[in-house]
Give the backbone structure.
Amino acid sequence: MYDVWKNALAEIEQQVSAANFSTWFQNTSLLSAEDGNIKIGVKNSFYVKQLRARYLEIIISALKNNNINVVNVEFEVSSSPKTKIKSREITKNQTSFKDRVKTLHLESKKNQLEYQNGLNDKYTLDNFVVGSNNDLAVSAAKSIIDAPGTRYNPFFLYGGPGLGKTHLVQAIGNELLKRNPNLKILYTPTSHFYSDFIEAIQNGKGKEFNRKFQKLDCLIIDDFQFIVNKEKSQEEFFNIFNDLYQLNKQIIVTSDRLPSQIKTVDERLASRLTWAGAFDLQLPKFEDKCAILRAKADLMGAEIEPEAIEYIAENVNTNIRDLEGEFSTILLMSEVRGLTPLELINNGSVSVNKISKIRPVSPKQIIEKVAKYFNLSVKEMCGKSRVSNIKNARQVAMFLLSKELSLSTNKIASEVGVKDHTTVMHGIKKIEKDLKLDFALRDQIEAIKEKIYG
């Protein structure tokens, strides 16, 4: 005896992407199937439209393949999605299909049965939007997938919350497993590493704890900044790091800042973590945010006007998590009120400005903060000096005036005291080019922005 709908879902799962299956089918149920009239329970009316428009044929085929007579399919918003159709005897055809599904997954799941890897399969490179804010890190990630344990080892990824660090590193793990299901991969937040280590020590199983990590082909440590003030955990991780590195096993670490900026972290460990460089995820630019929202709309099968996407992208200035959250809220309100997202925005039913945590600033404030950061006076920085450090500070100010306030090159020229707007264009392009590889410059600009908006 078994649940007919689960069997049908197993077949559907083979025909749609993992992300789409998780989004549209995970919370569905088969409410009834009498005389060929199928009734499927869903979360809300938005799901009704999407399932009927995009997946009806797949659903009918899956049900028929499981010996369910299908005359008509209806979707119903159900408050109890766990309601199940009465179980019935398994037919030969159903048994053979179930066996086929088991066989298909057996090899890829074998390692996971022996080793809990902590990965979430919803995180993939296919649904990670690449933009100017993350292209370098994604390029390194793809190199790791092609040849783990070689060029970018360790891979240190840092950036603020909600920018996609967890998504990217888990996507690496999932892609490695996809290519080789026998790999032993472990994703663990630093807090779990710490608590598991303490528990092992308390139970006298410190050696077993260490041996578990020595068996890995790839170790992914998330939120490394939380290792602060945990000296024993640092020492244990240092030893594990050295063991894996000597064996050319891939090590991946994320943090909200560089190791050198984390107080009380051992200098030897901080140095090792950035042996292969450090890659950061920055706040997405306007174009990047639009691309992220378009991709999310495609994934959900949602219809949203380009003007609505641009409005959200223009007004959410915090991180990708807030961006997607506001997007989902507007879609839900659109469904509930029977209006398009743009109609909601135009009639004042939603206001995205409340999401922005960045307060307005003036050109004067930016110039003053840049000058102070580089230990210069505003007069010095905005003068005619060609001394290298002063020229660099002036170019940073040009860059920030352009990116933060969207000022024209002519306006920027007048603010920083240069005559020709082409000088401004050159300065901005130079900073943009240097940011690709100069991690110290990235840190400087982020530090200045914190002082501007702090």
